[in-house]
Specification:
The protein is α+β, with helices and mostly antiparallel strands. It is built from one helix and four strands, in the order ββββα. The chain has one domain. The protein has one helix at 46-53; strands at residues 2-5, 17-20, 29-32, 38-41. The radius of gyration is 12 Å and the shape is flat. The chain binds zinc ion.
Length: 65
């Protein structure tokens, strides 16, 4: 598993760090790194994973608050 900070917040505790699976046998679940609550499937975080695996020169788009 790999801990990463995402532009997401845990629906349980509001934490923004999540444990992402790094191996196929770890499945595709993403859990909160703080309370370990099940967050969602990695499919919903595909962009985040791609950003990690394929660094680009341009910064990630900021989500307007
Ligand atoms: Zn949490």
């Amino acid at each position: 598993m790999m801990k990463v900070t995402l532009d997401l917040s845990c629906s349980i505790c509001g934490h923004t760090q999540f444990q992402l699976p790094t191996r196929a046998d770890e499945g595709s679940k993403v859990c909160c790194a703080n309370c370990t609550a099940f967050k969602c499937h990695a499919m919903d975080l595909e962009r985040a994973l791609m950003a990690i695996g394929q660094p680009r020169p341009s910064p990630r788009p900021a989500i307007a608050a």
